[in-house]
Design brief:
The complex is a heterodimer of chains A (401) and B (349).
Chain A lengths: L1 H10 L13 H9 L5 H5 L3 H8 L3 H15 L15 E2 L4 H6 L4 E2 L3 E5 L6 H13 L10 E6 L6 H11 L1 H4 L4 H7 L1 E4 L4 H14 L5 E7 L20 H14 L3 E5 L1 E3 L27 E3 L2 H7 L2 E8 L2 E8 L6 E8 L2 E4 L5 E2 L12 E3 L7 H5 L9 E5 L6 E5 L1
Parallel strand pairs in A: 3-7, 3-10, 4-5, 4-6, 6-7
Antiparallel strand pairs in A: 1-2, 8-9, 10-11, 11-12, 12-13, 12-14, 15-16, 16-17
Chain B lengths: L9 H9 L13 H8 L3 H15 L20 H10 L2 E2 L4 H6 L4 E2 L3 E6 L5 H11 L12 E6 L6 H22 L12 H6 L1 E5 L3 H17 L3 E7 L3 H4 L5 H22 L2 E6 L1 E6 L2 E6 L2 H5 L4 E8 L2 E8 L6 E8 L2 E3 L9 E2 L1
Helix pairs in contact in B: 2-3, 6-7, 9-11
């Protein structure tokens, strides 16, 4: 952990002061006189602009910029394989762990996306538990910060998962309390509170041995604002970079859940050189009219995207984006002990369907009367209910069976 | 040549002009002391100005041994360039179809932009090229090293290890199948050797990105065996938090020029990975590469990776020398490879 603190401070290269860079005094003074104090100030101007501003010749400017760049540039590394920075949090789902080379990777954002009620929160609860377990039982022996924006965290359910998955631990006196005591739940209700939460998390991450950060869900804070438009300035821009850098500096796994929305006519799927009448990569079947919320920039920013969906009565968890895994899908089910895979051998999906999100949902709940209720699944009942989403107007019919 | 076009500071320029020195030839036979007196500046500064003037105006600039029509400029004839182009090595992508449409592989000496939706395989292709540039000469490679500039943290060591091991295996197979008659030779490379030859820079802000691209000129002149520079991705730090779009365009333009200069000066391949965004054109929203229209002119070659039917395809969107075409490829456990199916025909546009 101490090593990562050094990295945090070293990282702020953009704010390095020119006065401390050891440049020849004459040019350093000129920079200061013109209010260019940091590397960022200097490098945000082109060389001609600097010439004009500082009233010096091109050769001098080039030399100065070259020195500033060399000093502000982070040193290179050669990434050898046996480094301690790469780590994984095993999910205890054998097939998934194998596909992800060990589990949820440290230092990057792993996204869980899927329709309501599919099991994202269940997965998060299980991961929180796993991170808090002692290392003798395969856990990370640390604290967990759980940011719950939709009030879906259920400690009762989490204990239930714990008792059923690791009975030998939870039967020990006081263990349940100790485990649950390691999980800190924050429930911001507005975007501003959420931003403040993140800042505070960053400050206390290192001191409190936090080994996992869960944000459930990210989409709750922007779904009200921009609907489904593709804005120029992404409202999540700051959060995205912040969370990414948080993950990287602290080298912990960061799990973020994302919602889905229906595909609108405005969602583009083609480039200008493609013949859009063919529509080959977007099957126009009823099932795949859902897309992940938060937009394309977010999809680029996450390193691992796990799509959870339901098709023909089966739930699937798909590794849709991962630089070290083949595109595989596993069938899973939700049980008393959390999530479990039905088969550890995944189904390889080489086409674009790995990214598609299917909207048929098989759920257990007491009768939901609106989409909002469908998001707040807290209880499990005996009867199965099939909810079929309609594309156009978010209405659905409930079929008991 | 005019004094107003000299790269000197604005105040010096103004003083020269007001003192009557309009053209460079007027400076050719003057002493620094005289100039200093005339302009009211120090003798050192005058010497500096005269030095710049002589560099610009003099006909004794070193020109390659081909006669050029334009005096004082470094120019080559098209015939000489043809020889250079043909002897220019290319980096294979490990996918035969993709290599075909690229004319043999990614060309050194040029900037190639590769863009696509998330998950299509841009980083995979970047990693594959960082490994393939290291293939020894006797296996048809360039025996070079790679610079990998990572702005998003997508460089996963385990994956690079996988691709490197697969590459070594391919070389061993090549030996056993195609060189049966020749004396056996061992492939003495390990995956760690490949990893050690990739100079990895982790960039966390646009300032660092500009800094590293500026610094590369010095770095590569000290490490002459670098044959490929991969930036993954060029977009990330320029996409959000940029209120001043004009500034962004200027900075991107400056970066593009520096990269082109690097590619040309050191004969290496520069590969820029880009993200996608949407644009409204022709009555509907379409996918397009990010960073705007002015950026799209900056790179020499442009390849778009996209989904088509059930497979991943690469499309040559822009290139001065290769015709527009698409080819399928696959991302496998061993890296980028040919799509192993019946429909492998290359689609020409």
């Amino acid at each position: 952990m101490r090593k990562s603190v050094n990295r945090v401070w070293r990282r702020v290269m953009a704010n390095k002061l020119i006065s401390e860079m050891g440049l020849p005094k004459s040019i350093a003074n000129i920079f200061a006189a013109r209010n260019i104090h940091t590397a960022k100030d200097a490098l945000s101007l082109t060389e001609f602009e600097l010439m004009e501003l500082l009233d010096v010749g091109l050769a001098e400017v080039t030399t100065a910029v070259s020195s500033i760049s060399e000093i502000s540039c982070p040193p290179y590394q050669t990434r050898m394989h046996n480094e301690h920075l790469a780590g994984h949090l095993p999910t205890r789902l054998k097939g998934l762990d194998a596909a992800l080379c060990g589990g949820i990777p440290f230092g990057v954002i792993t996204e869980l996306v899927g329709p309501a009620g599919i099991g994202k929160t269940q997965f998060c609860l299980k991961l929180s538990l796993l991170a808090s377990l002692p290392s003798s039982h395969g856990g990370l022996d640390g604290h967990v910060v759980y940011v719950d924006t939709e009030s879906k965290f259920s400690s009762r359910r989490m204990i239930e998962i714990g008792v059923n998955s690791f009975p030998e631990i939870f039967q020990i006196e006081g263990m349940a309390q100790q485990m649950a005591g390691r999980i800190l739940v924050l429930q911001p209700t507005t975007p501003t509170e959420f931003s403040e939460c993140l800042q505070k998390i960053k400050d206390s991450l290192l001191q409190h041995h936090v080994k996992l950060l869960v944000i459930d869900s990210m989409a709750a804070l922007v779904s009200g604002r921009d609907g489904q438009g593709q804005c120029r300035q992404h409202p999540l821009g700051w959060h995205m970079t912040f969370i990414k850098s948080l993950a990287e500096f602290s080298r912990i796994p960061v799990v973020v859940t994302n919602q889905v929305r229906s595909h609108s006519g405005d969602d583009p799927f083609h480039y200008s050189f493609q013949d859009s009448r063919q529509n080959l990569d977007f099957p126009t079947t009823f099932d795949s009219h859902l897309v992940a919320a938060l937009g394309i920039p977010w999809a680029h920013a996450v390193s691992i995207r796990l799509v959870l969906e339901s098709k023909s009565g089966q739930r699937f968890i798909k590794v849709a984006k991962s630089s070290m895994s083949p595109p595989v899908a596993f069938t899973f089910a939700i049980s008393a002990s959390g999530i479990s895979l039905l088969h550890d051998d995944g189904i390889e999906m080489t086409g674009p369907e790995i990214n598609a999100i299917c909207g048929q949902v098989l759920k257990h709940f007491n009768v939901a009367s609106s989409i909002n209720d469908a998001h707040n699944i807290k209880y499990f009942r005996d009867f199965e209910v099939t909810v079929v989403y309609s594309i156009k107007n978010w209405s659905f019919r409930v079929v008991c069976g | 040549m005019e004094v107003s076009s000299l790269p000197i500071s604005a105040s010096h320029r103004a003083k020269l002009i007001s003192a009557g020195y309009i053209s460079i030839s007027s400076l050719s036979s003057i002493s620094p002391a005289h100039l200093a007196r005339d302009l009211g500046i120090s003798e050192n500064e005058a010497t500096g100005i005269l030095k710049v003037a002589s560099q610009r105006g003099g006909p004794e600039r070193t020109i390659p041994s081909h006669h050029s029509i334009v005096d004082g400029l470094r120019a080559q004839t098209a015939w000489d360039m043809l020889h250079e182009e043909e002897s220019c090595r290319r980096i294979t992508t490990s996918c035969a179809d993709l290599d075909d449409i690229l004319g043999g592989g990614i060309s050194c000496k040029e900037v190639t932009e590769i863009g696509g939706v998330p998950g299509i395989g841009k980083t995979q292709l970047g990693i594959q090229l960082a490994i393939n540039v290291q293939i020894p000469l006797e296996y048809g490679g360039l025996a070079g090293k790679a610079v990998y500039i990572d702005t998003e943290g997508s460089f996963m060591v385990e994956r690079v290890q996988q691709v490197a091991e697969a590459c070594i295996k391919d070389m061993q197979e090549y030996d056993s199948f195609l060189r049966k008659d020749l004396p056996a030779r061992q492939v003495n490379l390990q995956a760690n050797d490949f990893l050690a030859n990739i100079y990895y820079f982790r960039i966390c802000s646009y300032t660092e990105q500009i800094a590293v691209i500026n610094y590369l000129e010095k770095f590569i002149s000290e490490h002459k065996d670098i044959k490929v520079v991969i930036v993954d991705s060029i977009t990330f730090h320029f996409r959000q938090d940029f209120d001043d779009m004009a500034l962004r365009t200027r900075l991107l333009g400056g970066m593009a020029l520096k990269l082109m200069k690097l590619a040309k000066k050191f004969t290496l391949a520069v590969i820029l990975l880009n993200q996608v965004t949407t644009k409204y054109s022709g009555g509907s929203f379409q996918l397009t590469l990010a960073l705007g229209d002015s950026w799209s002119h900056a790179c020499t070659n442009r390849i778009i990776l996209y989904w088509n039917g059930n497979g991943r395809y690469a499309h040559i969107d822009k290139s001065p020398s290769i015709r527009s075409a698409s080819a399928p490829y696959a991302v496998t456990g061993r890296g980028i490879r040919n799509l192993a199916s019946n429909c492998k025909r290359v689609k020409l546009m």
